[in-house]
Design brief:
By secondary structure, this protein is an alpha/beta fold. Helices cover 39% and strands 18% of the residues. It has 6 helices and 7 strands, in the order ααβββαβαβαββα.
Length: 188
């Protein structure tokens, strides 16, 4: 009986240790590791996600060309519902050669959740779908919404934690000043 109790204790312990060691030595913990939130002036962390039509969009494609308002959000987020109409307004006001919105949804249902939400709220800015929430690990976010303004050089120029009003004069002035900087070739 004593040996049976030992076995019942030791076998699960050995399995647990094996699982932990497999994770440690497989290298998978590095890809799932949460990074700290980027600081101002830091190079923006590149990613590629499908847009609502399935086309892959890469952040670095805008480096050297456009200021990017990178917004991380979800359809179930009440603060996002308040903020996204202001993102739409700034998109309509500034979209063009020097400015782009990339709104990354972390909804697990992807297009199924996002498309009706966009229609309901009259939103037509570019939306990318991250059904695994990996953008949160990459950008060290603690919730939604969070917004990162990426300048033409591909560097983080501004960070907004929580809902913001993107029609506020000081935010429009910031975006315009970044847009007025000359385009340049980004060297890695």
């Amino acid at each position: 009986m004593k040996n049976l109790l030992k076995a019942l204790f030791i076998i699960p312990l050995v399995i647990l240790i094996g699982v932990l060691l497999t994770g440690v030595f497989s290298g998978k913990e590095k890809t799932a590791r949460k990074h700290p939130r980027p600081t101002l002036g830091e190079k923006a962390r590149d990613f590629a996600y499908p847009d609502i039509n399935g086309k892959i969009v890469r952040l670095s494609d805008y480096f050297g060309k456009k200021v990017v308002l990178l917004n991380i959000w979800a359809t179930w987020c009440s603060s996002c519902k308040k903020e996204l109409p202001t993102v739409q307004k700034i998109y309509e006001k500034l979209k063009g050669d020097d400015f782009e919105v990339l709104a990354v949804s972390i909804d697990a249902l992807g297009r199924k959740a996002v498309e009706p939400f966009m229609k309901k709220y009259g939103l037509n800015f570019p939306v990318l779908l991250d059904t695994t929430g990996s953008i949160q690990l990459l950008y060290g976010t603690t919730g939604v919404p969070e917004t990162f303004i990426i300048d033409k050089n591909g560097r983080v120029a501004y960070v907004e934690i929580g809902a913001g009003d993107w029609t506020a004069p000081e935010k429009i002035a910031l975006l315009r000043s970044l847009m007025n900087e000359p385009d340049r070739e980004v060297i890695e």
